């Protein structure tokens, strides 16, 4: 047996012993997604991860993804032990939205409804009226727009620009970005489309608007997987983290998937189609976390929990 299989066998045993379940995001490495599937856990987008952890009867959730996903799980189920392969796995959107500055921004516009993306700290979530993920952002902002609400949107400016374009809502934008999706390049994507005229372009809306404008389908990770499955094309150019290819290829083994270009000739990019923080989730880290949760267990400030829970539940109820 190779090293990976040995890790997997030991993790399977530990999950049973600890009454734990593995909840993984589509951007984690294929072997982690496969392990979550084999062990009765889930592989999902950020909304479904929250929902699954909330409903599952296990005592312990092991969340393979980034910190905001572990925090969300703990806010929703404080009675459970929530552990992560590493607590260092953060997100540029979360880092780019410190609570003091964001709260001061909100204070300047008290007549606005505060809508924040789930990729934020518990403190920012507690300051928000609504939390959204890319699966439900459009419907929630449409709903607020119909009620004539003016919106403060944070932190992802690209997702915000896309939602504003689709809904026509009055939105004041925080200027955050995802370091992975921010790297997709418009001219190179146009060139690639010209090389593969029969390919459909799938784009996560954390990408710049010029990339979104070249898309045949725009949506959250789960919505893009669905589009790959349902569209009749045999080829796809995919503008999101390459971790998603595992599920796309599994569902559509006969189709071909290409990474959207992240940099022109000779250029460098910080995170070419793979999130450096998602990549921190390895089999060894999962085993270590199950053996000794110290330093890998998620705790949230109970004073913030109540506020964050209210807006998280609003999202879960709305998109039920
Ligand atoms: P999804 O909710 O679409 O899975 O997106 C989460 C994320 O962090 C994308 O970068
Ligand atoms: Fe954050 Fe981007 Fe990584 Fe998603 S891919 S976790 S938005 S840095």
Automatic annotation (TrEMBL):
Subcellular location as annotated: Cytoplasm
Gene Ontology molecular function terms on file: 4 iron, 4 sulfur cluster binding; metal ion binding; quinolinate synthetase A activity
Main localization, broad class: cytoplasm
Domain of life: Bacteria
Statement: the UniProt record of this protein carries the keyword Zinc-finger: no
Gene Ontology CC terms: cytosol
UniProt entry tagged with the keyword Metal-binding: yes
Cofactor binding description: Binds 1 [4Fe-4S] cluster per subunit.
Sequence positions that bind iminosuccinate: 25, 46, 117-119, 134, 204-206, 221
GO terms (BP aspect): 'de novo' NAD+ biosynthetic process from L-aspartate
Pathway annotation from the record: Cofactor biosynthesis; NAD(+) biosynthesis; quinolinate from iminoaspartate: step 1/1
Catalytic activity: iminosuccinate + dihydroxyacetone phosphate = quinolinate + phosphate + 2 H2O + H(+)
Signal peptide: none
Necessary cofactors: [4Fe-4S] cluster
Positions annotated to bind [4Fe-4S] cluster: 91, 178, 275
Gene3D superfamilies: NadA-like
Keywords: 4Fe-4S, Cytoplasm, Iron, Iron-sulfur, Metal-binding, Pyridine nucleotide biosynthesis, Transferase
PANTHER family reported for this sequence: QUINOLINATE SYNTHASE, CHLOROPLASTIC, QUINOLINATE SYNTHETASE A
Family the entry assigns: Belongs to the quinolinate synthase family. Type 1 subfamily.
UniProt function note: Catalyzes the condensation of iminoaspartate with dihydroxyacetone phosphate to form quinolinate.
Entry protein name: Quinolinate synthase
């Amino acid at each position: 047996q190779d090293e990976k299989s040995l890790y997997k066998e030991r993790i399977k045993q530990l999950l049973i012993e600890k009454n734990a379940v593995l909840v993984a995001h589509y951007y984690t490495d294929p072997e982690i997604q496969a392990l979550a599937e084999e062990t009765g856990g889930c592989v999902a987008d950020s909304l479904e991860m929250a929902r699954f952890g909330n409903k599952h009867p296990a005592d312990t959730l092991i969340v393979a993804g980034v910190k905001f996903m572990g925090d969300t799980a703990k806010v929703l189920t404080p009675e459970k032990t929530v552990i992560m392969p590493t607590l260092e796995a953060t997100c540029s959107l979360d880092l780019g939205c410190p609570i003091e500055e964001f709260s001061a921004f909100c204070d300047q516009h008290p007549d606005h409804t505060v809508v924040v993306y789930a990729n934020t700290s518990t403190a920012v979530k507690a300051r928000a009226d609504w939390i959204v993920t890319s699966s439900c952002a459009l419907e929630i902002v449409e709903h607020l727009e119909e009620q004539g609400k003016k919106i403060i949107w944070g932190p992802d400016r690209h997702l915000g620009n896309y939602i504003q374009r689709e809904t026509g809502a009055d939105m004041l934008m925080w200027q955050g970005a995802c370091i992975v999706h921010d790297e997709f390049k418009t001219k190179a994507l146009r060139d690639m489309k010209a090389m593969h005229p029969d390919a459909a372009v799938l784009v996560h809306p954390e990408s710049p608007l010029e990339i979104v404008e070249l898309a045949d389908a725009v949506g959250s990770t789960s919505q893009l997987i669905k589009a790959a499955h349902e569209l009749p094309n045999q080829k796809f150019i995919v503008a999101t983290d390459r971790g998603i290819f595992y599920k796309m290829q599994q569902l559509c083994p006969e189709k071909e998937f290409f990474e959207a270009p992240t940099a022109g000739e000779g250029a460098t990019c910080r995170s070419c189609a793979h999130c450096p923080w998602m990549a921190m989730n390895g089999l060894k880290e999962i085993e270590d976390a199950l053996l000794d949760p110290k330093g890998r267990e998620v705790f949230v400030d109970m004073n913030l929990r109540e506020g964050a829970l209210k807006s998280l539940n609003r999202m879960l109820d709305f998109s039920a």
